[in-house]
Amino acid sequence: MISVVLADDQALIRTAVSELVSHTGGFAVVGEASNGLEAVDVVRATHPDVVLMDIRMPVMDGLQATEAICADAQLSATRIIILTTFEDDEYVLRALRAGASGFLGKGTEAEALMAAIRTVNEGEALLSPKATRALIDRYLSPAEPAPHRVPDELTLLTEREREILLLVGSGLSNGEIAAGLVISPQTAKTHVNRMMSKLGVHDRAQLVIIAYESGLLVPGRS
């Protein structure tokens, strides 16, 4: 059973999503919140597998709530999907840096939303096509080159881990990485988890940001 918390300031949206999630086999809504502060409190009380988080909410917005949740070591198993109508590049980058695992528009079809919850619950990152384009366009734009902020912890990665970091940054899943390197999916997952631990990040989506901003991965170059 995948447990879900819904955070949105619009009651109608919470009700609609709650009905969808609750009536899908294998899922359960364990809490709801109408603002970011409530979301943090509800997540700390329920320890859900996945949070569907709106961005623009009163008291505390969804990005601040995401940062608070991802900074809490006791909530390290919780994954967050930003569910919003605002899919511009700045929101995408801030959400990923905050620790979000996924980013979907509110116009997403029901089947795609449920698939997204399953995907991030399994430890994969997920971005909608529009959000992905916004992220890539930001790094491809000559007016806004990647700042190349290299974490000191990058030196702790083994040669194999750096290789896998490039593949994660290219958008490959653990299964695809395993097939390409001729290793088991579990081994690929272990490498990814070790990298996240060494780099002090909450989610593999943040590994994508590090791959670009460190200069290890250059857009348009294989």
Automatic annotation (TrEMBL):
CDD domains: LuxR_C_like (cd06170), REC_NarL-like (cd17535). The keyword Transcription applies. Transmembrane segments: none annotated. Pfam families: GerE, Response_reg. GO terms for molecular function: DNA binding. InterPro entries: CheY-like_superfamily, NreC/VraR/RcsB-like_REC, Sig_transdc_resp-reg_C-effctor, Sig_transdc_resp-reg_receiver, Tscrpt_reg_LuxR_C, WalR-like. It comes from the Bacteria. Residues 150-215 form the HTH luxR-type domain. Gene3D superfamilies: 3.40.50.2300. Keywords: DNA-binding, Phosphoprotein, Transcription, Transcription regulation. PANTHER family: TRANSCRIPTIONAL REGULATORY PROTEIN NARL-RELATED, TWO-COMPONENT RESPONSE REGULATOR. This is Two component transcriptional regulator, LuxR family.
